[in-house]
Amino acid sequence: TVLPDIQADMGNCTRCRLHEGRSKIVFGSGNPNAKVVFVGEGPGADEDAQGIPFVGRAGQLLTKIIASIGLTRDEVYIANVVKCRPPGNRNPAPGEVKTCEPFLFRQLDVIRPKVVVALGAFAIHTLLGTDRAISRLRGQVYEYRGAKLVPTFHPAFLLRSPDRKRDVWEDMKKVRALLEGR
Ligand code: URA
Is the pTM of this model over 0.85? Predict the structure, then answer.
């Protein structure tokens, strides 16, 4: 299987209610052989319009976060837990996650990255299957589907709380160390 097969299986998906309000499915973008995959929550307005993840204001900050580990957006892979924009940017509902997450699992299983960076509480809680506070989860590395999972703050949160950029910088140093086999 390759990523385009997964995208083809998704087709013009109507498996959950989110299809009703979306304009474009945001499947994911980047390098199919990426060593690191960044996972967000779900598309916002800009992503829904363009069909590309993390292209809005938070996305511009994510591009800088990726640059901090010496990589570009084209060298990593970027995806979301759900592929269609929730109305008004609400959190995806549990049923929507259940319906959509098999596609993320398949993406990760074909990319087989060394590191998965979970961006923000929603992605962290979904991937790790826990609802423990992000403050207690970050700063540690978790085993996840054969990869090392590094939880960090969502760039949209960093736009509101720039004082936490230092923490994200620490998390990215960890990512770099893992990629270098340290
Ligand atoms: N926020 C997300 O979680 N994902 C995107 O693609 C954009 C903003």
Answer: yes
